[in-house]
Structure formats: structure tokens, C-alpha cells
Design a protein that fits this description.
heterodimer; A: alpha/beta; five-stranded parallel sheet; 12 helices; 17 strands; B: mainly alpha
Chain lengths: 522, 181
């Protein structure tokens, strides 16, 4: 396994080891590029994961302090936990559900398609579906996405079967067990899904794709990739000419280390990535690194989300089996006649008793709450996830007061639902309720958004430097050898889960970084 | 469909995990919530009456008739140790219970513990739900009550499954009452 010197300035240094950073690291290593991935969290393996929601949360979640503001309900319910993401090698691919969907053509062109929506900051991506399609294909093959590459779909569990039966009665047509990066048959040295049911707690069988046990060990095997866990980057450094020269990171004892770099790629998820750029302000960039546009941290998206749970006369046991292998896609289209632009997906979800208690209706108590809990075994659940509108005022900033244990200002997340998000949520809850009612639900429980698992847009891609932070390759408009490689690149969020697009962009970015290095552009 | 046995099973793992201060289940099963109970008498930083009132309030906040008092006692017991180490916490509990009892005296001429009907006690809790004491108690309970593995089967939840090979051969798709189409 490679071990590189702190003074080695020929390296690509990647900050974060999740869908973006982990994939980019392996892709570059396969091409012979020397890479160091700095990961803030620890390194666990599948055997370390626990089928226990709170214990797993303690093990894997990013729990460092954050603050919130805005009118979103998450800010009220979880003022210091705006997002549920992972701090460990593999990043949020450790706890993701596996849903792997491509954007639709129109979802790359929202300004052209939706027009100028008041209170929103819509922009077309500088790339099209046609440009990304070959990389989507590579990502689907790499991740073993079901219903692509001849891979069969996963079998439907009880929770899916309730949703599918209701969907059929309501008249929905595109209903199946999803395009999932979870093996339905052995593939790529990993076994098939055992229907364990703890997808969000780290897959103990390894059937679900995660950079932790796919990209990262493959990259390490080349001898070109070193992954350093427990290495929390606090600053990106820059020389007088404007190039970035390396990063400063803290080890768990609080000691600071300076790793030199030829290229730096930021992939710390859409809250930490802009925070790091803002915390790396320099003489040349007093408002934050690569922030001449003022767009770093802005246009934060987290998807329109919500849930409907239905309680039935007879048992469902929704927690048995793959958490999110079930989808209804009929509402994932742009049809403004519904009262909003953009679309949404309906996907199966389940929580165990501990998380159901904490997230069903935060703050609630009394018999209305407990009688719903008593219906747990007869409950089916779906997650509603749709496109939310980017707004300049929805943004990640540095908290003026709160600092982390290293003395760095923490991220503060401001979010207000756009009227379009509210209209979409109301429609989705109504449709979800109709589905469960159609198969005999005796009680419907519309639950509020959970802390954000999909964080996007805070360093967005734009054709013109004034509209965003990075160009079509994820390269910052301001600094040639500084890249962004995670979901913060997203110009818009689309209706679907973001991971497949993050991985596709990372594969494409690796081709371009390698090319630019070869041509001495960077 | 494969149903599960909902009878209480005290696993050693769960017992060790959920008891900050160990409370033997057998010592509590069937007893009523009162200041005279052993677990209330054993509290060190919180007076027995306040301890019993906390447990009663815990049950009134998250009432599950199929869950025995022992689980509410266990959920609240760590508050005694915390009060022993943290004066502010102790003061919050003491003042919170005093306020609840004062409100109960005003409305029913009896302390909270002795107010007979749940609906009357719930009305008293509604009166203090904006207080730090109530919010802290509720937020703590939503984890300390529901995170006890022994109560999971009572809700029909089976907990950890990887060690049993998941649900592949244990009913992940055994639903049998849906309309066939």
C-alpha cells in the first residue's frame, strides 16, 4: 500500500472518501496518478457495522456541531443536526440506500424548462444528459446497478408489495424494485443481498456498493492510492500566483500536518466542502477560496422530502429486507398542471423502533403518538423525494460564533422551502396516502422531513464564472488546480437520489484531471 | 406470515446495555409507581417522591399499555446519577416536579402522582410542555425508552438480523393478505 511524503508536491490530494472522492481516487490511481485521500473519519469494515440504529449512528454519523436557521422544519426539530451523513472511510456510501437513478434530460436544463421562477436561482447545467450518458453507463457497471447491464431486479419485500399493490390500484404504471447498487446476484467479488434490512447502518454482507470495499481497496491495490483516515482538513493553502499548494489537516491528537499537492479535489459533501472553501479565505480570495462569484455555499439543495406511513389491519413487518428496493416513478416528470414544476419519486423506506420514535413526529407525545407506534408491525412506509428549487438564500455560511474543537468556525445551514417545494410535498403526501388507502390502510401518518441525506449544490457548476463556482469538469473557475468532486457540484438536484450522478461525474472528472495533468495544464 | 413472540425476554445483552444503574426486572414487575418502591428509595440525588413522579410522567408522556413499569423506570433511572453529578440538572428536576405538584394541587388538591385519571395528568403536562424540564424529559425518553431492545418484540420489531442471515429465509416477502392482481 502506498505511503506518500508530506512534501510530495506531485500528488492529487482528495478531501473525502465517499461517492465522489473515493471514486475519483480509484479512477486516478488506475491511470497511474498518485493520490492521497484525506478522510476526516475513522476506517471501519463490514464486520464492524452494527444492526442497531443508535449504536450505528454513534459509530458512523457526522456528529460535529453545525447550526441552522430558516423556516424548514428540520431546523426546528434538529437545530444542530441539519444533515445525516457519514464521517468514516467510504463517506455516505456506507449508509446510503443504494438507489441509482439517472437524471432526465430536462433535469439538466431547468432554467430553460421551468422558466424564471420567482424566488429561485435556476440555471442550466453546462453539460447535457448526452454528455454524461457514457459515464452513467460506466458508473452503473462499476456499481452493479440492478435493471442495467442484464442484472435482475431485487426481489420485493413486504413493504414493497404493499406499496406496489396500492400503486396498481391507483393506476401507476412504472412500479418496480428499483435500480439499486445492491447485488441481486453475486458480482464483482461481492455476494448477493441477504435482506438484512439495515442498509442505513452499513451493509454487513457487502452486497451494497460502497467505496469502502470497492473503489478504495481497488485503488490501494495499484500502489498509487493512499487513504489516510482520521485526517480532518481545516484549510487549503494557496501561493501568491493563485495556485493551491496543499492542505493543512488535523490528526485526532489535534496536531496539524501540511500535505503538499499538485492538485486538490474537495469532496467533503455539500456542507463541509463550502465550509472548507470559506475557511480557506486568502489575500487573493478574502471571501473564501474560489469564491469570486460569491456563490460558494449558496443554492443549497436537500430535495423536497417527506414520508407517508400507513397502518393496516394485518402485519407488514416493513423492516424485513432491503430498505429502499421499491419505487414508483410515474410522478417523476415535469407537469406544471399539478401545481409545481419538476417531479418526485416515491420509494420504500422503513425505520426500526428507535428511529421511528425519534423521527415520526419530532416533539410529539401522548396517545396519538404512542398508538401510532403501537401499530408498528402493521406499518408500511414510503419516502417522497423530489426536486427542490435552488435559492441563493438557501446557503451554507460560517457560523459567526460557534467553533469546532479545532477552533474552526462551524457550518451554519439556512434553508427555506420554496413555494414549489411546499406544493410538491402536499401533492406527494396526497398521492402516497391514496396508495395506502387503496389497499386498506386504517391510519395514515404523514411524517416530516428527516435530517438531510441528500446535500447538493453549494459549489455549483456553471458555464459562466459569475453564476457558479466550477466549470463543466468540476474545476473551479478561479483556480486551475482546485476541483470539486462531490454533490456540491450539482447545478440542480433532479427528482432522484444523487449518488449515481456523483459517481458518474467523478469518473468523468478523473479522465479530465488525468488529461490536464498529462498536458501540463495543471 | 412469520409472526414473532411478543412476550418479554430479558436478554443479558439488552439488560447490561440499557441499565445505567442496574434495576432488577423481577424486583419491579407488577409493582405500582410509588415513592415506596425500591427503585425510588434507592435514588440518591433525587428524592423518592420526585423519582416516582418522574416515572409516572414518563408513562403519561409515552403511554404504552403493553409495556410494564420496569421499562419506564429504566428509562428514567439514569437521571438520578446525572442529578448527582450535575447541580443544574438536579435543580431542573426538583423545580420541575415541584411545579407539576403545585399545578396538581391547584387543580385536583392532590400531588401529580395521586391524580387518578391519565387525561387529568396529561392536562397538567400540557401546562408545562413549554418548559425546559418537560422538553428535556421528552427528548431524553424518546431515546431511553424506545432504545431498550427488550421492548422491541412488543412492537413486533426484531432488531439485529445479520447474525440470523438477514430475512432472506425468514419472511422478508411473506405477506399473504394483499389483493392479488
Amino acid at each position: 500500500m502506498a505511503q506518500f511524503d508530506l512534501n510530495d508536491d506531485s500528488l492529487v490530494v482528495i478531501i473525502g472518501s465517499g461517492a465522489g472522492g473515493g471514486t475519483l481516487g480509484n479512477e486516478l490511481a488506475q491511470k497511474g496518478v498518485k493520490v492521497v485521500i484525506l478522510e476526516a473519519g475513522d476506517r471501519y469494515e463490514s464486520a464492524d457495522f452494527v444492526n442497531d440504529e443508535w449504536a450505528s449512528f454513534a459509530q458512523l454519523a457526522w456528529k460535529d456541531m453545525r447550526t441552522t436557521s430558516g423556516t424548514w422544519r428540520v431546523g426546528k426539530d434538529f437545530p444542530n443536526l441539519p444533515a445525516w451523513i457519514v464521517k468514516a472511510v467510504g463517506g455516505s456510501t456506507v449508509h446510503w440506500a443504494g438507489a441509482s437513478l439517472r437524471f432526465e434530460e430536462y433535469e439538466f436544463k431547468i432554467r430553460s424548462t421551468y422558466g424564471a421562477l420567482p424566488g429561485a436561482n435556476l440555471l442550466d447545467w453546462p453539460i447535457s444528459l448526452a454528455e454524461l450518458a457514457p459515464y452513467y453507463a460506466k458508473a452503473e457497471d462499476k456499481m452493479g446497478v440492478t435493471r442495467t447491464n442484464g442484472i435482475p431486479g431485487l426481489p420485493g419485500n413486504n413493504n414493497f408489495r404493499v406499496m406496489a399493490a396500492g400503486a396498481k390500484k391507483v393506476g401507476y404504471k412504472e412500479v418496480h424494485t428499483g435500480r439499486m447498487a445492491i447485488n441481486s446476484q453475486p458480482r464483482d467479488g461481492r455476494g448477493s443481498c441477504q435482506q438484512i434490512g439495515f442498509c442505513f447502518q452499513g451493509c454487513k454482507s457487502g452486497a451494497k456498493w460502497s467505496t469502502l470495499y470497492t473503489e478504495i481497496p481497488k485503488g490501494e491495490d495499484t500502489g498509487n492510492l493512499e487513504v489516510r483516515p482520521n485526517s480532518h482538513v481545516v484549510k487549503i493553502e494557496q501561493d501568491a500566483a493563485g495556485k493551491v499548494t496543499g492542505v493543512v489537516y488535523a490528526s485526532p491528537d489535534g496536531a496539524m500536518h501540511r500535505q503538499k499537492a499538485r492538485v486538490v479535489a474537495v469532496a467533503g459533501n455539500s456542507i463541509e466542502s463550502p465550509r472548507l472553501l470559506l475557511n480557506s479565505a486568502s489575500n487573493l480570495f478574502p471571501d473564501g477560496l474560489a469564491n469570486s462569484s460569491g456563490q460558494v455555499g449558496r443554492n443549497y439543495m436537500r430535495h423536497m422530502t417527506g414520508n407517508v406511513y400507513g397502518i393496516f389491519e394485518k402485519p407488514v413487518h416493513m423492516y424485513r429486507g432491503t430498505t429502499m428496493a421499491g419505487i414508483i416513478r410515474d410522478e417523476s416528470r415535469n407537469d406544471p398542471k399539478r401545481g409545481f414544476v419538476g417531479g418526485y419519486e416515491m420509494e420504500t423506506i422503513s425505520l426500526g423502533i428507535p428511529f421511528m420514535a425519534a423521527f415520526m413526529d419530532p416533539g410529539a407525545w401522548g396517545r396519538s403518538f404512542t398508538s401510532a407506534m403501537d401499530g408498528y408491525s402493521n406499518m408500511a412506509g414510503m419516502w417522497l423525494i423530489g426536486e427542490d428549487m435552488p435559492r441563493e438564500t438557501n446557503r451554507v455560511t460560517l457560523d459567526p460564533a460557534a467553533k469546532d474543537k479545532l477552533g474552526m468556525p462551524v457550518a451554519s445551514v439556512h434553508y427555506d422551502d420554496h413555494p414549489n417545494d411546499i406544493a410538491m410535498r402536499a401533492h406527494a403526501v396526497q398521492q402516497g396516502s391514496a396508495i395506502y388507502s387503496a389497499v386498506g390502510a386504517t391510519r395514515l401518518i404523514p411524517t416530516p422531513p428527516y435530517p438531510s441525506t441528500h446535500n447538493m449544490g453549494t459549489n455549483r457548476m456553471s458555464e459562466k464564472p459569475r453564476d457558479g463556482v466550477i466549470n463543466k469538469f468540476g474545476q473551479t473557475h478561479d483556480i486551475k488546480n482546485l476541483f470539486v468532486s462531490d454533490g456540491s457540484q450539482f447545478t440542480s438536484g433532479a427528482a432522484c437520489n444523487p449518488t449515481l450522478t456523483i459517481v458518474s461525474l467523478a469518473i468523468r472528472q478523473a479522465d479530465n484531471i488525468a488529461r490536464m495533468m498529462e498536458q501540463r495544464e495543471i | 406470515m412469520r409472526e414473532i413472540d411478543r412476550r418479554t425476554q430479558f436478554s443479558r445483552r439488552g439488560f447490561l446495555r440499557t441499565t445505567g444503574a442496574a434495576v432488577p426486572a423481577a424486583a419491579i414487575a407488577g409493582t405500582s409507581i410509588s415513592a415506596g418502591a425500591a427503585w425510588a428509595q434507592d435514588a440518591k440525588a433525587i428524592a423518592p417522591h420526585a423519582m416516582a413522579t418522574l416515572v409516572k410522567a414518563a408513562r403519561d408522556i409515552f403511554p404504552h399499555d403493553h409495556i410494564g413499569d420496569v421499562f419506564y423506570v429504566r428509562a428514567v433511572t439514569p437521571w438520578d446519577a446525572k442529578a448527582g453529578k450535575d447541580d443544574a440538572h438536579k435543580a431542573m428536576v426538583t423545580e420541575g416536579i415541584a411545579r407539576l405538584d403545585a399545578d396538581a394541587q391547584d387543580a385536583h388538591a392532590s400531588p401529580y402522582l395521586s391524580v387518578a385519571w391519565e387525561s387529568d395528568r396529561v392536562a397538567l403536562l400540557r401546562g408545562i410542555e413549554h418548559t425546559k424540564f418537560f422538553k428535556t424529559l421528552r427528548a431524553d425518553l424518546v431515546v431511553s425508552l424506545y432504545n431498550q431492545p427488550e421492548i422491541w418484540p412488543k412492537f413486533g420489531y426484531e432488531g439485529s438480523s445479520a447474525e440470523y442471515g438477514g430475512y432472506l429465509a425468514r419472511g422478508f416477502d411473506d405477506i399473504n393478505w394483499l389483493p392479488t392482481a
